[in-house]
Amino acid sequence: MHCVCKSTRKAGRCLCLCQDVVTPNGPLNKAVGEDVEFTLIDPPPAPPFQINWLFGSVLICSGSAGSVIGVNPSYEGRASLDPNTATLELRSLTLNDTGEYTLRVTMIIGQVEKEWKTTLRVFERVSDAAITIAGSPDPLIAGKSSVSLTCEAKGSITTRKWMQNGETLSPETDRITFSDDNRTVSISPVQKEDRGEYKCQYKSATPSVLQKGLEH
Question: What domains, with CATH codes, occur in the chain?
Fold first, then answer.
C-alpha cells in the first residue's frame, strides 16, 4: 500500500490518499533460452483471491487464494505461478514469447478485478561476428582500387555504425557509400586518407564492436 499525504490550510491537518500498487516489472529483455520472472513492484500483503496471467489474449496460468488453479497445456513445464505473490516465471524462452503480458488480479472477494500490463522482448544472442573485405586485391592503389567492408553477424541486431580511426564514418563524398542497412560500406576509389582502422559498432541487447585494419 502506497500513500501520498498533503498538508491542508488548516494547521495540524493532513489529507492522505492511499492505493494498492502492484505494477509488474518491465519492460524486460531476455535472450533465447533464458528464463524470466514477472514480479510485482509492490507485492500484495496477502495472497490475492484471483490471479490470471495472459500473453496477448491467451491465458497462461491462474491461481486463487494461495493455490495454483491451472496452467495452459501449451505452457506446461515452462510456466509456473507463485499464487502468494502473483509472480510468473517463464523458462526456456523463444522468440515467440516476445509481446505484451497482462496480469489480472482480484485482491478480495467482491472486489472489482484490476488489470496491469508489461512487455517482454526476447532476442537472439549475436554470434559469428566478423568484418569481411572484398574488392581489389592487395596492395590497394590510391585512386584506382576499390574495397567493400561488410559487418557480418547473426542474431538480433538493430543498428550498425561504422568508424574510421575512432571517428564516425559518413558518406561525405561520392566515394563512400553505405548499404541500406549499414551492413556494408564501399569505398571507390580508395585514397590515402582512407588508410587506418575500421570498426563496426552494432547495437543489440548486448552492444559490441568489431574492428579491421585497411592499408594501401
Answer: 18-123 (2.60.40.10), 127-214 (2.60.40.10)
- Judge contact between 57 and 41, C-beta under 8 A: no
pTM of the entire predicted model: 0.65
For the stretch 142-178, pLDDT in tens is 999 999 999 988 888 888 899 999 999 987 778 999 9
163 closest CA partner among 125, 200, 133: 200
Across the chain, where does the E strand assignment appear?
2-7, 14-19, 28-31, 36-38, 50-55, 58-64, 67-71, 79-82, 87-90, 99-106, 114-123, 127-135, 147-154, 159-164, 167-168, 176-178, 184-187, 196-203, 208-214
Task: Supply the DSSP string of 199-211, one letter for each residue.
Answer: EEEEESSS-EEEE
The rounded distance, in Å, linking the Cα atoms of 145 and 138 is 9
Q: Give how far the C-alpha of residue 113 lies from the chain's centroid of Cα atoms, to the nearest Å.
A: 30
State the Cα–Cα distance between residues 87 and 39, nearest whole angstrom. 5
